Amino acid sequence: MDPFLSLLHSFSSSLTKEELSAMKFLCRNKIRKRKLESVESGRELFTILLEQHDITRENVSFLEELLRDIKREDLLSKLKQFVDEGEVKAPEDQPDPHEKSMEVICDNVGRDWRMLIRKLDLGDVKIDRIVAANPRDLREQLFQSLREWQRWRGRDAKVADLITALRGCSMNLVADRVEQ
């Protein structure tokens, strides 16, 4: 399977309707109006852009522009990783030193998870995007928020920061469990 097409497929799956609509608007000078009106998914949009050679494996500058304009830095970083390394490694393939701490937090933090995530300085826009992607799964919302915080902070993401944020939210019992 072509890694570039897999990457575009994963991008397509993670786009909201609003983001797709914004991307379609931004493509108005590249794709005819009638063709754009029939596009209902990111996959269809990417297929047209590939057919017209507006995006290729070797030239992703237009795709970078689109992702930057719709404020999807997470997808932009995956694209840059693809360009740098030739493919994107799935997060599951990379060892995660925070995995155990994140599981403990997800198992013990309930409806107040947003307070914790805000304490970690993750923006409301990112939180809302995660909630929209996982509308009925509170645990997954928290888990994905913690993952997003970890990606955003990179090497600066420390378990000690999680513990400090938990204590700052008066979630001392959970903080104690994370320390263990």
TrEMBL record:
Q: What is the recorded function of this protein according to its Swiss-Prot or TrEMBL entry?
A: Apoptotic adapter molecule that recruits caspases CASP8 or CASP10 to the activated FAS/CD95 or TNFRSF1A/TNFR-1 receptors. The resulting aggregate called the death-inducing signaling complex (DISC) performs CASP8 proteolytic activation. Active CASP8 initiates the subsequent cascade of caspases mediating apoptosis. Involved in interferon-mediated antiviral immune response, playing a role in the positive regulation of interferon signaling.
Alphabetical list of Gene3D superfamilies matching this protein: Death Domain, Fas
GO MF terms listed in the record are: caspase binding; death receptor binding; protein-macromolecule adaptor activity
The entry describes its oligomerization and partners as: Can self-associate. Component of the AIM2 PANoptosome complex, a multiprotein complex that drives inflammatory cell death (PANoptosis). Component of the death-induced signaling complex (DISC) composed of cell surface receptor FAS/CD95 or TNFRSF1A, adapter protein FADD and the CASP8 protease; recruitment of CASP8 to the complex is required for processing of CASP8 into the p18 and p10 subunits. Interacts (via death domain) with FAS (via death domain).
- GO BP annotation list: extrinsic apoptotic signaling pathway; innate immune response; positive regulation of cytokine production; positive regulation of extrinsic apoptotic signaling pathway; positive regulation of innate immune response
Q: Which Pfam families match?
A: Death, DED
Which residues does the UniProt record annotate as the domain DED? 3-81
Q: Which CDD domains match?
A: DED_FADD
Phosphoprotein listed as a keyword: yes
- Residue ranges of domain Death in the record: 98-180
SUPFAM superfamilies linked: DEATH domain (SSF47986)
Read off the InterPro entries from this record: DEATH-like_dom_sf (IPR011029), Death_dom (IPR000488), DED_dom (IPR001875), FADD (IPR016729)
Task: Name the keywords, alphabetized.
Answer: Apoptosis, Cytoplasm, Immunity, Innate immunity, Phosphoprotein
Superkingdom, natural source: Eukaryota
| Single GO cellular component term | cytoplasm
Record's keyword annotation contains Ion transport:
no
Per the database entry, which stretches of residues form a coiled coil? none
The record's subcellular locations are:
Cytoplasm
Name of the molecule in the record: FAS-associated death domain protein
Q: What is its main location?
A: cytoplasm
